[in-house]
Design brief:
The structure is a single chain. With 368 residues, the protein is an alpha/beta fold. The chain is 28% helix and 29% strand. The strands form four sheets. Strands 12-15-14-13-16-17 form a six-stranded antiparallel barrel. Helix 1 crosses helix 7 and helix 4 runs antiparallel to helix 5. The longest helix has 20 residues. It is globular and about 65 Å long. About 2% of the residues have low confidence.
Length: 368
């Protein structure tokens, strides 16, 4: 696309580096940008853990941009990242939810903040190294389509992008497998061809979510384990240490495996149940976003995913209010977790989705 300007979010990894390379070969005027979001960390920690936007990411992205002979900048988004990702992450756990910070980062940092800054400097598009594709459908709406490789598909974390954002988004990596991307990087001589993928949440590189929350929030306290009837079974360390479906690390001697089935932040209670109690066929969600369709047609069947690694299950939806939806699965799904996303697929395309709330809250809102 000669003459079209695209800002590529470069994380220093192989995917975004190849995205920049492919777009340049396609004739775009490419500008590389790394988003500075949390660089007050100790350098030793970053060197040990990496991360998608840490100091080493900047160094690698800068070297790739130099190799590709494209302009490169570091843009400071630390304030919006703290508000929309870190604060959201902490507050969600405090309220008994298990959040997905990558979804929040995609929506409010990588697309909203970077998109706005990119448009201000005259860009026509922004691009990332996500394994997904963006297409315009016959009904005129923009939608995210599954990548060609199910093993790396990242569409789940992109369900809440807006129509405006999608109309100015390019995702060239989604047409390739991971092996093909590494092969392209090696063939082009990119220094990050063999760089490992980052695995953990970037601002919690040691994986200790509860410890991170305790360092960033005061007033957390232990509470009671209870069964669904309210009988006290023991004491727990604090609700931020637990998630629905959890079995290990409970410290309960029940004589058989038991599971977290609900977290009640208003009473600091963690509800314990049996294996079958972790399954349900009904999911409620709010914060609805419509992508491939302008609304969710009642009774229409979708494939619904309740977490990133979920293979998906057939379901039908029902609107209970302007921002409340009930989804009934044909077969029960395990460990439906408030705070995670319910993402609906119509074939290969993301129809939309929302944020899961507890069944108790969903029924209360539906009756209200």
């Amino acid at each position: 696309m000669k003459g079209k300007k695209v800002v590529v979010g470069m994380s220093g990894g192989v995917d975004s580096s190849v995205a920049a390379c492919l777009l340049k070969e396609q004739g775009y005027e490419v500008i590389g940008v790394t988003m500075q979001i949390w660089q007050d960390e100790d350098r030793t920690v970053i060197e040990e853990n990496g991360g998608c936007c840490g100091l080493l990411a900047v160094e690698d992205a800068r070297r790739v941009a130099g190799f590709l002979d494209i302009p490169y900048y570091v843009m400071n988004f630390k304030d919006v990242f703290k508000e929309k990702v870190i604060d959201y992450f902490v507050e969600s756990y405090v309220h008994g939810q298990t959040p997905n910070p990558c979804i929040a980062c995609n929506r409010y940092v990588k697309w909203e903040a970077l998109f706005r800054r990119s448009m201000e400097i005259g860009a026509d598009y922004i691009a990332t190294g996500h394994y997904a594709r963006v297409e315009q459908l016959h009904n005129g709406r923009m939608a995210v389509r599954n990548s060609v490789t199910a093993a790396k598909d990242q569409t789940y974390a992109l369900y809440n992008l807006t129509q405006e954002q999608l109309s100015h988004t390019l995702m060239p990596v989604g047409s390739y497998t991971k092996e093909e991307i590494r092969s392209i990087a090696a063939d082009k001589g990119l220094l990050v061809a063999d760089k490992p993928d980052s695995q953990e949440i970037c601002f919690v590189p040691d994986g200790d979510y509860a410890g991170f929350i305790e360092r960033n929030c005061s007033g957390l306290r232990p509470g009671n384990y209870v069964d669904r009837d309210g009988t006290i079974l023991g004491r727990h360390k604090g609700i931020t240490h637990y998630t629905v479906g959890q079995r290990k690390g409970l410290g309960l001697s029940m004589g058989h495996p038991v599971f977290v089935t609900e977290i009640r932040p208003e009473t600091d209670e963690v509800v314990i149940g049996e294996a079958e109690d972790v399954f349900t066929d009904t999911v409620y969600c709010t914060g609805l976003n419509f992508m491939a369709c302008p609304d969710f047609e009642e009774g229409k069947e979708f494939l619904g995913k309740i977490r990133y690694g979920h293979r998906g299950e057939r379901c039908v939806v029902k609107r209970l209010g302007d921002d409340l939806m009930e989804c009934r699965f044909k077969h029960p799904v395990r460990a439906v977790t408030p705070g995670q996303a319910l993402v609906l697929y119509d074939g290969e395309y993301v129809a939309g989705g929302g944020t899961i709330i507890s069944e108790r809250e969903g029924k209360q809102r539906g009756q209200g």
